[in-house]
Write a structure and sequence with these properties.
The chain has 1065 residues and is an alpha/beta fold. The chain contains 24 helices and 29 strands. Strands 5, 7, 11, 19, 21, 23 and 24 form a 7-stranded mixed sheet that branches. The protein has a 7-stranded mixed sheet with strand order 15-14-13-12-16-17-18. It has a 4-stranded antiparallel sheet with strand order 4-6-22-20, covered by helices on one side. Helix 13 packs parallel to helix 19. The chain is globular, with a radius of gyration of 30 Å. It binds zinc ion.
Length: 1065
């Protein structure tokens, strides 16, 4: 079937298009096409009949597993929701002589309860209902009326007892605008233990429901979820676990109508609750009087859940300019009606300030996170391939933007005006079409490039290197056969796996076999090339020991078709482990390995990917030789940045050569000690490759993870020799880029390879005024070579609104995307600046963002309040997670290689990945409904949310922890671990036994489901409460104070408030 079809003239787009023959990828979930044999493409189509799958969970991921980054299951949690606006009021002790502490956060809606984004539509002074006035405990002068919107959080306690209990629970946490900050609020300063105290009956129980017919708020009896469990108190877990479900008791009204209960010393409960874990480590003075209630500050769990409830059921239709999509944690369908799907592009704001002054004032970075080859959900339509024949895609004469739905046709359709630069261009005769009475071309709905946000053009030879259509790419497998690699069983494992995996190389459309050729190299101090030509009876090895000037000793027979050379390849893969079984060679080279692969691709005149399996620091004499320069003493010094920098520029130059050739390098590392990821990863990083690390690789515990990663990496959709350009309409332009790529000029992002998981974050700056009428446009054009060697252009368009009011900017922000940008910005910053400088800059920028909102968009009164924009109310908690991440504030156990590794990973992450990486998902497994497909409702990442009678799962995209409380019922332990008691669970367990009972099945299916949602196979770590490993787990409880000095969420919020007040004063 030819790919050179005429442009499609079928039914309207947006639906399955059986007639469209140019681009068939049933493997990716498209519709099977009539008359076209179903593509045999195991990778995305489920297990192939002929492929022997290992036992689960090693199986190939079916296509259904990948498309959605969000959870396909909505959490069934309580129905209570957040206040539509968050106005946390942080105040100082009352100076009025009140004896009660006055600090608390206030939640209150700004006007109408249904305002989506937190502020009224205009920037006029906010109208606040009396109820939003902050409550001053002890002050009788404050209004206590309540707007109806408040009432869903529970009516006020009505009895005197309840009221007095509330009062007893109040503690001072915050500061009035005019008062100096009390000591002890300082950010990062050690805090003596405080006593959050258990939820009081009056605090969690809703009052008389009569006045609130619509309000559904029925907390479970505290004891059923997280009350104190019988048994000995554990030192590590003795906070009064608040109810985990519903998780927001703090949003209830207080007796005065304000929100945000403040917990304080609870003398009655002191004995039962020795104190929250994070403040109770060192015995200290009596609790200070100030403590914000964690339940009263914005909860990521609640925000995620609200968005699921509000946006998860309807498809997101992209026809509206500047529309904010659902959160990445919401599972939703996208219908392309003229703008790119949020799976391809997400923005920090969908409403851009009209002027650069406004943008500077707000300090909100304008950035887009672009994932050009993102995997879609199976129900969604892949980008159509448009072929304009030899003349190629229609483009603007001046700025070269590609034809898109926003181009305006004029003069009866003979010319079009560019939506990016306004230049008028002749319509080529073959592309002419009449306009209808509205000025639209009559064929617009038949042409993807006139009606859709995303589509592809077939590129002509003009878009090809040296004006020559490319050859299909090649994969070269390069296996370290030094002593460690052989001894650990790794070499044998890789060879065994490749025998079957080679049948699952990416293939295109209706092709029966992959066009990708393969080659094999093994190496230690020298390189061994293999001739696997189909005519040979046995493979031939050629050794190159002069690694100083790498060359490829054979051309014919090195890169071969898998089917043609099947028996020779199989024989080679059988022989490699035997050949090196007795090796004593411990030293390796590294740069010459990449050079060899590069030379092989050059000789074959094709792009491709190197899969390098490497175990150690390359100390053998050769170009790119490295020394061990790890030095943890550099942490927190001005020289810390050197730990992230490569130790030689050799690899930067090599990377440049690789990009020129389209040689992408994927690196699988198996270190038993420092191997300098910061240097070894340079080529991978700059060529758009992926890096995987398996420290202390052990066959039994790590092979599943490695094999799953390898399979996915080999099979995933990838484009080669890619160049991305982002064009923008007049007034803004792309100024900065973050990701795994190489740039030789200021506009073109070059990637030797770009796969479906990689994102590029692009920052925009003003260079002129924008207009509210015309808005702003982005067009991302990716030129790449497909896995079959076809040159294509993938185009994504996105239209944004522009605003003259700051309130509109804040109302259309997306905090998850903002965090993605800020993290990448900071993670690049550590290469050149001291980490502390980077951290301070982050805090400062976010404080400015929030201060600008406070100053310009919120009520002028009560200057002491912390007022957060609705769309950014999670900015403080997420920012704190970035600040205390291992790159910016490493724990003691984190190695230099880990930090470099994480730095590289995050730089290519999409928004969903950064979201769960910085704020991990924590699920109470013991609350899972074994009869349904749903996940248990997530809870907040804090130790005080854990009950020792429960089992929890925590995942962050790299690891899955299963934490087992000491008081878990024996029956559950038996069902999940197959042993009769907690003490019999092995320490350091990394798998769950396959047991035939509903609980075991449910937990394993949850884990399998999470594994499929992530681009990497996560490492499973079973953690017993009070075991040594628990420290590792606690590191991910990101709302708590961290051992490495990271602030708790509550403390950080107070710190942010202080920063904001300083900016405002
Ligand atoms: Zn133009």
């Amino acid at each position: 079937m030819s790919v050179n079809q005429q442009a499609h003239t079928g039914p309207p787009y947006g639906q399955p298009q059986p007639g469209y023959q140019g681009y068939q990828q049933p493997a990716y979930g498209g519709q099977p096409l009539p008359g076209v044999p179903q593509l045999q493409y195991g990778a995305y189509n489920g297990p192939m009949p002929g492929y022997q799958q290992p036992a689960p969970p090693q199986g190939y991921f079916p296509s259904l597993g990948f498309p959605s980054k969000g959870s396909p299951v909505s959490l069934n949690s309580d129905t209570s929701s957040l206040a539509p606006n968050f106005i946390g009021s942080l105040r100082a002790p009352s100076t009025s002589g009140a004896s009660l502490p006055s600090d608390h956060l206030t939640y209150s809606p700004f006007g109408q309860g249904d305002v989506q984004n937190g502020i009224p539509a205009s920037a006029a002074p906010m109208q606040r209902p009396p109820a939003s006035q902050p409550y001053l405990p002890g002050s009788a002068s404050m209004p206590v009326t309540q707007t109806p919107t408040f009432q869903q959080y529970g009516p006020p306690p009505t009895s005197v007892q309840q009221l007095s209990k509330h009062m007893a629970g109040m503690t001072v946490g915050i500061i009035a605008a005019s008062a100096p900050p009390p000591a002890g609020l300082g950010y990062g300063a050690p805090r003596p233990p405080t006593m959050p105290g258990p939820p009081l009956p009056g605090q969690t129980a809703a009052g008389p429901p009569a006045s609130q017919p619509n309000h559904v708020f029925s907390p479970p009896p505290p004891s059923s979820v997280s009350g104190p469990q019988p048994g000995p108190l554990m030192s590590g877990l003795h906070g009064p676990p608040p109810p985990t479900h519903p998780p927001q008791p703090g949003y209830q009204m207080q007796q005065n109508g304000s929100f945000g209960q403040v917990r304080g010393p609870q003398p009655n409960c002191g004995a039962a609750y020795p104190g929250p874990p994070n403040y109770g480590r060192q015995p200290g003075p009596p609790p200070p009087p100030k403590r914000l209630d964690p339940d009263s500050i914005p909860s990521p769990i609640q925000v995620i859940e609200d968005d699921r409830n509000n946006c998860g059921s309807e498809p997101f239709v992209t026809g509206v300019r500047g529309q904010v999509p659902p959160l990445v944690t919401t599972d939703f369908l996208v219908k392309d009606q003229g703008n790119a799907s949020p799976r391809y592009i997400r923005c920090t704001s969908y409403n851009i300030p009209c002027t650069s002054d406004m943008a500077k004032q707000s300090q909100v970075p304008l950035a887009a996170v672009i994932k050009p080859l993102a995997t879609l959900r199976p129900e969604e339509t892949l980008p159509y391939l448009v072929d304009h024949g030899e003349s190629g895609p229609v483009r603007c004469n001046r700025c070269k933007a590609y034809m898109c739905p926003f181009m305006q046709f004029i003069e009866g359709g003979r010319r079009f005006q560019c939506c990016f630069c306004s230049c008028v261009t002749e319509v080529p005769p073959h592309y002419f079409q009449h306009l209808d009475h509205t000025g639209k071309r009559v064929d617009f709905c038949d042409r993807p490039e006139l009606s859709l946000g995303s589509y592809e053009f077939l590129a002509t030879v003009d878009y090809c290197k040296n004006n020559k259509f490319p050859s299909p790419p090649a994969f070269i497998f390069m296996i370290d056969v030094s002593y460690n690699a052989v001894k650990s069983g790794l070499v044998r494992l890789i060879c065994e796996e490749l025998k079957s995996l080679l049948d699952y190389l990416p293939r295109e459309g209706n092709m029966e076999e992959s066009a990708i050729r393969v080659g094999f190299v093994t190496y230690n101090k020298v390189l061994h090339f293999y001739n696997v030509k189909s005519s040979l009876a046995q493979p031939q090895m050629m050794v190159v020991s002069d690694v100083a000037d790498m060359f490829v000793p054979l051309l014919d027979g090195f890169l071969v078709n898998v089917n043609e050379s099947r028996t020779v390849i199989a024989s080679l893969l059988d022989q490699i482990p035997e050949m090196f079984a007795d090796t004593r060679e411990t030293e390796t080279v590294f740069a010459p390995v990449i050079q060899a692969g590069l030379e092989a691709l050059k000789a074959a005149e094709c792009a491709g990917k190197l899969f390098i399996f490497h175990t150690s620091l390359p100390i053998a004499e050769a170009p790119g030789k490295l020394k061990n320069r790890d030095d943890k003493k550099l942490i927190n010094t001005d020289k810390e940045k050197t730990l992230f920098q490569p130790q030689t520029s050799f690899y930067n130059n090599l990377a440049k050569d690789c990009v020129t050739q389209g040689c992408c390098v994927d690196l699988f590392l198996f270190p038993n000690q420092y191997l300098d990821v910061a240097t070894l990863g340079v080529v991978t990083y700059q060529t758009g490759g992926s890096i995987y690390k398996y420290a202390y690789f052990q066959l039994e515990t790590d092979q599943d993870r490695f094999l799953n990663d390898l399979r996915r990496d080999v099979q995933k959709e990838v484009g080669f020799d890619a160049v991305m350009r982002v064009r923008t309409s007049t007034g803004i332009r792309a100024t900065d880029f973050f990701g795994a790529f190489y740039m030789s000029n200021t506009t073109d992002v070059e990637m030797a390879g770009l796969d479906c998981d990689k994102t590029i974050t692009v920052e925009f700056k003003h260079d002129d005024k924008l207009s509210e009428d015309s808005g702003a446009l982005l067009q991302c054009a990716l030129l790449y070579t497909s896995c079959a060697g076809q040159r294509r252009l993938r185009i994504h368009n996105l239209s944004l609104n522009c605003c003259t009011q700051l309130a509109d900017l804040y109302r259309n922000c997306e905090t998850d995307t903002l965090i993605n940008y800020l993290a990448k910005y900071a993670y690049r910053g550590v290469l050149s600046s001291p980490v502390k400088t980077v951290r301070d800059a982050l805090i400062n920028q976010c404080a400015q963002i929030l201060a600008c909102y406070r100053k310009n968009c919120a009520s002028p009164s009560s200057a002491g309040q912390l007022i957060l924009p609705e769309c950014m109310k999670l900015l403080p908690v997420y920012l704190n997670c970035v600040l205390k991440s291992d790159v910016l504030q490493p724990g003691l156990e984190v190695t230099t290689d880990d930090r470099a590794y994480i730095r590289q990973l995050v730089t290519s992450m999409d928004v969903a990945e950064t979201n769960v990486f910085f704020y991990p998902r924590l699920l109470p497994l013991t609350k899972a409904d074994v009869d349904s497909d749903s996940l248990p409702a997530a809870i907040r990442n804090s130790e005080e949310r854990l009950s020792k009678g429960d089992i929890y799962l925590l995942e962050n995209g790299l690891n899955i922890f299963v934490w087992v409380g000491v008081n878990v019922q024996q029956g559950l332990i038996q069902n999940l671990f197959g042993v009769s008691s907690f003490s019999q669970i092995s320490n350091g367990l990394s798998t769950l036994p396959v047991l035939e009972n509903p609980f075991s099945k449910k937990v394993r299916s949850i884990i399998d489901m999470l594994q499929m949602q992530r681009s990497r196979y996560m490492k499973l770590i079973i953690v017993k409460q009070e075991d040594k490993l628990e420290m590792l787990f606690k590191h991910f409880l990101v709302e708590d104070k961290s051992l490495s000095g990271g602030a708790s969420y509550v403390d950080f919020l107070c710190h942010m408030h202080k920063e904001i007040r300083q900016l405002l004063s």
